[in-house]
Prior knowledge:
The chain is 44% helix and 13% strand. By secondary structure, it is of the alpha+beta class. A hairpin with a 5-residue loop joins strand 11 and strand 12 (305-307).
Amino acid sequence: TGHKTIPNWTGGSLLLAEVGTVQMEFFALAHHAGRPEFRERAQRAIDLLDSQGGGLTDGGRLWPIHIRPESGRPSGSTISWGAMGDSFYEYLLKTWLLTGKKHEQYKRMYLEAVKGMQRRLIIEEGGLTYLCEEKSGKLVRKMDHLVCFVPGTLALGAQHLPEQHDEHMALAAKLAETCHRMYTLTPTGLAPEFVKIVGGSMVAGANHNLLRPETIEAFFYLWRFTKDARYREWGWEIFSAFERHCRVPSGGYSGLKNVKLRGSAKDDTMQTFWLAESLKYFLLLFSDDSLLDLNTHVINTEAHPIKILPS
Length: 311
């Protein structure tokens, strides 16, 4: 119909993760439907973000989470690989892979983004490595559970980027350890929505748990590429915690209101991503590699495998 609305709470801006998380699906749709206009429209958004996203700083760059719809220009100063930014960065790598590594623009932008992340958002304190946020040019010392997809994405990308392999795998392992620590931090063994770094230590920043998949996603990729048994062991610990605290006797699972309290009230909600993503990544983590060939498929941000497109 051409009708569109933008939520008031964004101040009239679009979100980076909105405009940068349709490319895989639209490219696949264009191929299977024989309608290139779907690919062209999704590609236009990336071209604008590429051209309007600012220059490089020490070989890297990052995009604010708000994007003006009339120009494609980034707006504001909040930069995050977590909420409202996350899957844009994920799709830079995965769209490159989906196109059979033919679309070099996505590879270049992914490497620029990772470099920017390493230079501006990564800190090491108390023996852990954190991926923080930035506002008004200043580091915000918090880490969303949402960014726990990053270790998996780095590990996936490392298999196709020999020059960056060791560096990216090392960072992936460090971030995965931090994500595991988010779970062992609490008496329930379940992670809070985000943590803060206070005095060099990790503390819960928001006490609820929504059954999110990102940490298990990371463990799946790292297990697949390293065969390090700790990723399966950590995954089983987390699955067992979900079974103890989130399973509902009448059927299904529910998020927790307070992971710091054994016997916490549940939030009476089973998020769709629990079925679509969390349980699927548990299944993949504990299954043989033959269940899903990562040389022929790329998993989108909702954990749906898409077959790599022919050239």
